[in-house]
C-alpha cells in the first residue's frame, strides 16, 4: 500500500519539503529559482514558510539535490508561466509553487541514503517532519566534511610523493 506523500507521520509539524523534477524540468527549476508540483499538492505546499529547507529530487537520476531554502511562502501560481500546461495555455502544469534560493551546494544524495533516514523511498514522501529535515541536513553536512577531509588526504599524499 502506497503511503500518502502529503502528510508527515502522526501529523507532525512540517520541517522541510521535497519537490520532484525530471531531466526536462530540472533546468527550469534552477533558472527560475522556483520549484513546483501538481495542484493536488497545494495544501501541503501552502504550509511552506520562508527559511524552510527545501530539496529537489530528480526521479530520472534518483538523486536528491540540496540544500535549498524557501524565500517565499508556498502558494499557487507564483509564476504561472513556469512549466506551461499544454492543455490549458497560460497556466502552469505545476502550480503548487515556492521560490527558492540555494542555501549551500552539496553533492546530491541517492534514494537509498534518503530511505535510511526516512524509512520510505522519496516517491512516497514530500513533507518532512522537523526531525527528518534535521537528519537530512546532518547527512549532507557529514558527507561534505568527509569529502573535504578525503580531498585533503589525497592532496597531502600527492605532495608527499617523491619526484620521479
Give a short synopsis of this structure.
With 164 residues, this protein is of the alpha+beta class.
Cα(first) to Cα(last) distance is 62 Å
CATH superfamily: ph1033 like domains
User: Could you list the spans in which at least 5 consecutive residues all have pLDDT below 50?
Assistant: 1-10
**What is the count of DSSP helices, taking H or I runs of 4+ residues?**
4
Q: How would you describe this protein?
A:
It contains four helices and eight strands, in the order βαβαβββββαβα. The protein has helices at 26-32, 42-45, 111-118, 130-160, and strands spanning 14-21, 34-37, 53-58, 63-70, 75-76, 96-102, 109-110, 127-129. Strands 1, 2, 3, 4, 5, 6, 7 and 8 form an eight-stranded mixed beta sheet that branches. Strand 3 and strand 4 form a beta hairpin. Residues 1-10 have low confidence and may be disordered. The chain has 164 residues and is of the alpha+beta class. It has one domain (13-160): Roll (ph1033 like fold), CATH 3.10.590. The relative contact order is 0.21.
Amino acid at each position: 500500500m502506497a503511503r500518502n506523500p502529503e502528510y508527515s507521520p502522526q501529523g507532525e509539524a512540517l520541517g522541510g519539503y521535497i519537490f520532484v523534477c525530471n531531466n526536462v524540468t530540472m533546468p527550469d527549476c534552477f533558472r527560475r529559482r522556483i520549484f513546483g508540483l501538481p495542484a493536488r499538492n497545494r495544501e501541503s505546499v501552502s504550509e511552506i514558510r520562508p527559511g524552510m529547507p527545501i530539496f529537489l529530487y530528480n526521479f530520472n537520476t534518483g538523486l536528491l539535490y540540496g540544500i535549498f531554502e524557501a524565500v517565499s511562502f508556498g502558494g499557487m501560481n507564483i509564476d504561472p508561466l513556469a512549466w506551461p500546461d499544454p492543455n490549458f495555455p497560460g497556466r502552469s502544469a505545476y502550480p503548487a509553487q515556492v521560490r527558492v534560493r540555494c542555501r549551500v551546494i552539496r553533492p546530491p544524495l541517492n534514494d537509498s541514503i534518503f530511505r535510511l533516514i526516512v524509512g520510505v523511498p522519496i516517491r512516497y514522501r514530500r513533507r518532512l517532519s522537523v526531525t527528518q529535515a534535521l537528519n537530512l541536513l546532518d547527512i549532507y553536512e557529514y558527507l561534505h566534511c568527509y569529502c573535504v577531509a578525503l580531498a585533503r588526504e589525497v592532496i597531502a599524499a600527492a605532495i608527499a610523493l617523491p619526484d620521479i
